[in-house]
Amino acid sequence: MPGHVHVVSDYTCSPDDLWAVTKDLDALVEMNAKMVRMEGVPSGDMYPGQQINAQVSLFGRLPSQPYGITILEVDDEQRMFRSTEQGSGVKSWNHVGRVEETSHGARLIDDIEIEAGWKTPLIVGWANMMYRARHKPRLRLLDQRGALR
């Protein structure tokens, strides 16, 4: 039975600036760095049909394992992406990320459905921590880009 992750993060920047960081794969690697070291992820923005074959290591201390990410959809007009992932004990990790405008700036909404057999509750707990831990590095990236109000 799949588990679900729903994380909402608010920022005082424009939706376009938040979207630019959201679809930037270099930003993804940087935001994950404290919890997951990712190697083999290409630079630049994600695009539909992109296949990413990476190596991941929890905290950069555990042995690296293969991890695959397929970008299914990237919609700049709607500021939304959809991906599917697998590897490192995960059978499926289906992710929809979208950026919305708010009265104070922008909101990133991550919805993830995870299937990892008996490990599903553990992986869902890990994913909740990881997605919440991205908030501070994302703020730093937005600040470095001069996007915060």
Structure description:
This protein is an alpha+beta fold. It has one domain: Alpha-D-Glucose-1,6-Bisphosphate, Chain A, domain 4 (2-Layer Sandwich), CATH 3.30.530.20. The chain has helices at residues 15-22, 25-32, 120-133, 135-144, and strands spanning 3-11, 36-39, 51-58, 65-75, 80-87, 90-102, 105-115. It has a seven-stranded antiparallel sheet with strand order 1-7-6-5-4-3-2, with helices on one face. A hairpin with a 6-residue loop joins strand 3 and strand 4 (65-75). It is globular and about 40 Å long.
Blueprint (SSEs and pairs):
Elements: E1 3-11, H1 15-22, H2 25-32, E2 36-39, E3 51-58, E4 65-75, E5 80-87, E6 90-102, E7 105-115, H3 120-133, H4 135-144
Antiparallel strand pairs: 1-7, 2-3, 3-4, 4-5, 5-6, 6-7
Helix pairs in contact: 2-4
CATH superfamily: START domain
Q: In sequence order, what are the helices and strands, one letter per element?
A: EHHEEEEEEHH
Beta-strand segment tally: 7
Specify the CATH architecture: 2-Layer Sandwich
Distance between the termini: 42 Å
Overall pLDDT confidence: 96
* Helix/strand class: alpha+beta
Q: What helical percentage do the residues reach?
A: 25-40%
CATH class call: Alpha Beta
Spatial extent as radius of gyration: 15 Å
List keywords for this structure.
149 residues, alpha+beta, Alpha-D-Glucose-1,6-Bisphosphate, Chain A, domain 4, seven-stranded antiparallel sheet, globular
In short:
The protein is of the alpha+beta class and 149 residues long. It has helices spanning 15-22, 25-32, 120-133, 135-144, and strands at residues 3-11, 36-39, 51-58, 65-75, 80-87, 90-102, 105-115.
